[in-house]
């Protein structure tokens, strides 16, 4: 089947059976769609892009002051070279933040290293306020979307609520892809570990989705979020929904691409259940993927940690993780 562009889902229409049907088709057949009518204004989204560019324009010294190598919790800034996918360097600069929390004092398990405070630059105070308020709004949207998706699968809307209760684990990043000829890998082909991902793109294309053996360009659409299904939903649906592979091609020299990614997972200490989907969906399921290089783990903390250790081997050196976690991450 060919597809020239991703399906579009209207957030404000998700209370109708028609839109939920479209959602189920988009989520199960493509795993990627544009989400529109989500209620966030273009002014707010533009302001987020502006403050993100201001962050990347800070001096090396100011950015290094919040480097992920200084965090025990995989938070903060990575210059180009600080991330790998599929064993190769991703040509992107990025700043990561998660739930604002205090660190666990006596760790009982490696994944608890994910819990901790964010690092914020001292010279750009709007960054913290603008990004945390964006995250809060995105979480509200993600919870509603996840509930609509459960309903569209013939489940109760709250079928997965127990795994995130009032506070899902969220991870976000602002990203700059500098133009380069050194590599085509802005970020290599991968799946996202959580339930749902929202990507906000600027005007520059580069994001591609694997569909039916081809790479499909995800053209920027102002004001929309590009949503994708993550590994936890592949597990919960026993493969009826697939976490779709995607990548970003590095822009040409002289061109830059900016994006903002938001990853909603469940609570780190939870384990994702397998939903008992209707028979016609079970029959269509391809089953959970079994990539020896990327095992899907239903313990949420372990699945998230696997991705962090694999992505940021240098930052991981400074962080307490057991050899088992390193093994899962390679
Ligand atoms: N947090 C993320 N979703 N990162 C996705 C990028 C791919 C990541 N480097 C990996 O190896 O899985
Ligand atoms: O920058 C983008 O458009 C997508 C980034 C992405 O897929 C990721 O960071 O997981
Ligand atoms: Fe991704």
TrEMBL record:
Query: Does the record carry Iron as a key word?
Result: yes
- One Gene Ontology molecular-function label: 2-oxoglutarate oxygenase/decarboxylase (ethylene-forming) activity
Q: Which Pfam families match?
A: 2OG-FeII_Oxy, DIOX_N
Return the protein name: 2-oxoglutarate-dependent ethylene/succinate-forming enzyme
Alphabetized, the UniProt keywords read: Ethylene biosynthesis, Iron, Metal-binding, Oxidoreductase
The enzyme's main class, written as a single word, is oxidoreductase
Report which superkingdom the organism of origin falls in: Bacteria
Q: Which GO terms describe its biological process?
A: ethylene biosynthetic process
Keyword tRNA-binding in annotation: no
**Requisite cofactors:** Fe(2+)
Naturally occurring in which organism (per UniProt):
Idiomarina seosinensis
E.C. numbers: 1.13.12.19, 1.14.20.7
Taxonomic lineage per UniProt? Answer: Bacteria, Pseudomonadati, Pseudomonadota, Gammaproteobacteria, Alteromonadales
Q: Which reaction does it catalyse?
A: L-arginine + 2-oxoglutarate + O2 = guanidine + L-glutamate 5-semialdehyde + succinate + CO2; 2-oxoglutarate + O2 + 2 H(+) = ethene + 3 CO2 + H2O
Q: Which residues form the Fe2OG dioxygenase domain?
A: 168-266
